[in-house]
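Issue 218. Parser rejects a valid record. Input:
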Amino acid sequence: MFTGIVIDVGIIKSIKKGKKEIEMTIYTEKIASLKEGMSISCAGICLTVVSYENYESGYLFNVYISNETLSKTTLASYEVGDQINLENSLALGDEMDGHIVQGHVDGVAEIIKIEPDGESSRFTFRVKSDLIRFIAPKGSVAMDGTSLTVNNVDGDKFDVNLIPYTLDHTTWKNNRKGDGVNIEVDILSRYVLNDKSKTKEVWHK
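Output the parser choked on:
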């Protein structure tokens, strides 16, 4: 489990493509408590560290990405040298900032507009209709592993504000109109809507 608070912006050092999966090597300076089998959020996706080693002033760690993950996320579009948001998993007793994030990406949202809003930047996204029902004004959403608060929802579109600190300490400063980003809806909204649906089914019976 994660919180959507990005710990480090890693750099992709190598990508080895197999028949249906890829092995990715990522460099990090700030995540030092690496161990084999641990989970790391990479652009919002929960991946398992299969090996790691010291490198320069930080570490290199390797992850395998399955064909299913590649088909449902943006990881297939990453290239060597690209930056990627990283967060290590939440440990018992850690402070709970952000919101509960599982690292189970629901799909890809498209950036359709970026505009200044005071010192912040307002990003507008379009998502598939089956996901928008889980997104509510003032609710939480995880985008590329970043916990964000929803401003407004309009049809299949919604927008969020990113403050300068978030832009400076994540990969969001690199994003442009037309880019796709990984989205995970708030698990609480998913359960609430699911319970409501079950209640309606029982009522109609």
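Fixed in the parser; the record now loads. The two ends are 37 Å apart (CA to CA).
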